[in-house]
Design a protein that fits this description.
The complex is a heterodimer.
Chain A (H helix, E strand, L loop, with lengths): L1 H4 L3 H20 L3 H4 L11 H12 L14 H7 L34 H9 L23 H15 L11 H20 L4 H8 L5 H11 L2
Chain B lengths: L11 H29 L13 H33 L7 H26 L13 H23 L8 H20 L2 E3 H4 L9 E3 L3 H36 L6 H15 L14 H13 L1 H14 L5 H5 L1 H23 L2 H7 L4 H30 L6 H34 L11 H6 L2 H30 L16
Antiparallel strand pairs in B: 1-2
Helix pairs in contact in B: 1-2, 1-3, 1-17, 2-3, 2-4, 2-7, 2-14, 3-4, 4-5, 5-7, 5-8, 7-12, 7-14, 8-10, 9-12, 10-12, 12-14, 12-15, 14-15, 14-17, 15-17
Chain lengths: 221, 488
Amino acid sequence: MFHWLEKNPFFFSVGVFVVIAFAGLIEILPNFAEASRPVVGLKPYSVLELAGKNIYMKDQCIACHSQLIRPFKAETDRYGQYSLSGEYAYDRPFLWGSKRTGPDLHRIGNYRTTDWHENHMWEPTSVVPGSIMPAYKHMFTNIADIETAYAEAVTVKNVFATPYGDEIKGTRAAWEAHKPAVLAEAAKIAADMKNKDVKDAVAAGNIPEVVALIAYLNRLK
Amino acid sequence: MQSNAALEYDYSVAKLFTYTTILFGFLGMLIGTLIAAQLAFPELNYLLGEYGTFSRLRPLHTNIVIFGFTLSGVFATFYYSAQRVLKVSMAESKFIMFIGKFHFWLYFVGALLGVISLLLGYTQSKEYAQFEWPIDIVIVLVWVLWGVAMFALIGIRREKALYISIWYYIACFLGIAMLYLFNNMSVPTYFASGGLGNILHSVSMYSGTNDALVQWWYGHNAVAFGFTVPIVAMIYYFLPKESGQAIYSYKLSLLSFWGLMFVYLWAGSHHLLWSTVPDWMQTMGSVFSVVLILPSWGSAINMLLTMKGEWNQLTENPLIKFMVLASTFYMLSTLEGPIQAIKSVNAIAHFTDWIPGHVHDGVLGWVVFMIMAALFHMAPRMFKREIYSKKLLEAQFWLQTTAVVLYFTSMWIAGITQGMMWRAVDEYGNLMYSFIDTVTVLHPYYAIRALSGVMYLTGFLMFAYNMYKTMTSSRELTEEPQFRSPMA
């Protein structure tokens, strides 16, 4: 049979494809519906938090930080309750990471505050002596793209039925109407910060990346 | 074409991909060395402003090495060896020549766009699938073009039975096509929100645990079908060609090929041990990872036994040295992987530097060594000149071998040290170390790893220089060498 296959490229390719596709069908499909169900009480990310998640992706925090607490005593002592599948139901993409050059962040919102993050992102060694994390000073001046974050909220609401309220709609008018709510959320965070440029930017209606990022990190609980 | 004339193969596309293999290899390893040094000396994060941090550069390193260097090498060796084992020349068909050249240029433009987009921070944040949707579309087109060229060449072949290398190239084509498509399924937010926000942004079709499962089914098998399958294709062609030895066992190649195809895909979930994916999937991942030793070692042993009775070539021909070392590192790496996939070992190894250590003994020792040996074998035949310097080749071999050993030993120690420190408790059951203690302790290992990077990169530059001189100024050959590549 193998000799025959080697002379018939079409059937050879079909054979290879069936053999390699088999595992995916059996391993991935059966649990698909089950695994995407949210835990009770889980709220979708706010637009500002989504913008922060996008900063987290843009600057690839995932290169050094995980968001997955494994069910070991050493991990629950260090980071808190081990992670549950349903907590990730609104995470697109998942941001578990594969390397902990820095600590896990899945419940960072439980034990770090806005001002700690502000100091840390400006100069990591000021709060963690010996840290090898780079400073992210550009996040204090770059402006977060909240319109794209809003577009993302609209997308996941329309396409994946993520439970957002009626005010999240795919029109420019709806976005203009929602914008003040995003700014108000950012203003609350800026109030806990000391960087004057950041405060001024938020007051002027621009949200620096660091504010959105902190909103996201505070949400991780 | 007259049947009694010797076939003149056309290497124009193979040459183009050879150039990009060298270019992207240098770029990828340069960035790799820089980010390795950043972990030891954090001040190096500030060389390029916001574009120069470890986090921004790390995906560039991985993507340039995978989609730039390795894929170029796969395409270069394919366009070289496929003609020869199928007994047809690219020049026989205008259509195939056009597809081949179009394939190259679209690939090159796509790769440059990919590099720029990652530098600017456009990313889907899924490992080795970072490119945003427009680049994904270019990659799919590039892949389709390769498939067209491949099956068109197969379609007009004179040798009816497909040689083993062609099996593996076909598997590479099909495997990556399936994996890449499914893992990159995403919805562009601009179009789904009535034209709001950035047109490049998209959201994954899958969420949370499902996304993780699809991603690591992809991530693990992108390694399988990008870093293993086509490299095995290369060694099955180039080792017999360089040594003049026939493959040791046809049955063993058959067993390893179909075994590898069936088993590899199951093992993806070993990246998700102790996570929130269902337990039975984790167990399947573990079990199949161990089974995977069989087909992997099958190929490697088949290669080593091919040299049976001819081991003197190992001392005489540096290219044989590269290839034998490559298959040895393949064995090391495919034993190490299954060990890490055992749940209790994984509890310590996961999230630590042992994982990049494992990746790099496979990639630096196996993939890069094999691709360089293949290009060195091709150069005298494509450019009709002998290899410029045997001495340089020998020096490069030892420098890079030492570098790989330094790399993985330092990362083994770093990984196991950190894994043990994270879980260490004192006599009252309290954690003994704060997280930062487990970082600062790694400094010497990070410094050794950076040094090994500098050494390996230097070796790669020696390779590039040797290739350049071979192409331009070494002694011309009057006829094609049959087996052993001539070198000065």
